[in-house]
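Narrative of activities, Objective 1.

The group set out to show that a structural description can be obtained from nothing but a protein's sequence at a throughput compatible with the screening campaign. Below is one input-output pair from the validation batch, recorded exactly as produced.
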Amino acid sequence: MKPPNKRGPTLADRVLAKKYSAREKVMHPKTMDQLHRSLIAAHRFVFDEEAARRVAQVVHDIPSLLVREHQFARAPFDITWIEYPSYAYWNYLHDAQPERYTTQGEWANKATADHTVGYLIDHNRINTFVGGTVSQPDLGPTLTSMQYRLSTEWTLDEQIEFSRLVGCSRIMLDMIMWGSTYDVLSDEERRLLRAYNVMEQTPLNPAHHMYRDLTADGGMGRQARGSVGDMRTVIALLLMLNRPSLTTYKQTLPNTRGFIRGHSVAFLSHTTVTIAIDPVPTLRLVGTPSGDAVPRRRHEVRGHYAHNREARDYAKIAGCIHSFQASHGPPRWLPWPDAMPDEPDNWVCAECGGKRWWVPEHERGDESLGFVHHDEYSVIRRQKT
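Output recorded for this entry:
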């Protein structure tokens, strides 16, 4: 009789078990505390190697899916943890696109490729944890200095400020978001992620010795290079996780106890995800965009979250990651404690008083030049009445 397979720790288990040294506590203490609480409360999904390779196959074979469907990349729960064997995903793209990777210096170094990556999605905010490299998979998990916000307006001022931190142009921000997929997209498609999502610096600890360096011009350059393609990968993982016809839950493991570095720790429950069939033929049936890049004519703007300056400043300066509560909105922004989940369009942070609101979908642009349908990427002329 075979002994049962031993259950090893997930990246989530290792994150919670890690004891951070003073040197590693570069993130704001409030941020770390909140992330740990969110990770414990999250619904956790672990992609196996087969699933990771299948997601990479979709990214490589049909990047048009990411362009067409990116607005539907939503986590299945308000607080969701997704981890995947990053090396299996990266290695597929590396071997399938050697001409794009071999010229990218450190991008092509298999020894320093991330071993495992986890994304903690708290409503629309995403924080990234990296679990070692291929050559040193047992390195302690690291919270990156980069975080993302889905379906959130990225104002011009914020883009310029982030470009200063990274030391690049705003066009380079598109390259960071798309990674190797950037090369196969039109100019219009390349701007899609930057138009509807945000990259920003995770709140830092002002008392840390690296604070001044990380907030100087170009201080986030190294972190940005290490995060190339993360935004695209998050979208691909979420799109696949929301495809029940393709994604299979192999098993759900309950809470238990195990050992990390000789210490007994709690192992969190999680669901193991696999994709056993080739997803590309099925996903191709969704349809493909037609025509070349379209100019900025009259076009639809999807709904998105907006934040006032107070909410943005407190997140950057004071480390507030916001505890938003439903509100009746302007002009008085009164609390709405008995609101149903789908009722409010306005929220106020209970900690800093910052405001968030939902901007409904609307139209922008010059109607005389035609109308852009983003679901088809074609242009039609509207008749004058």
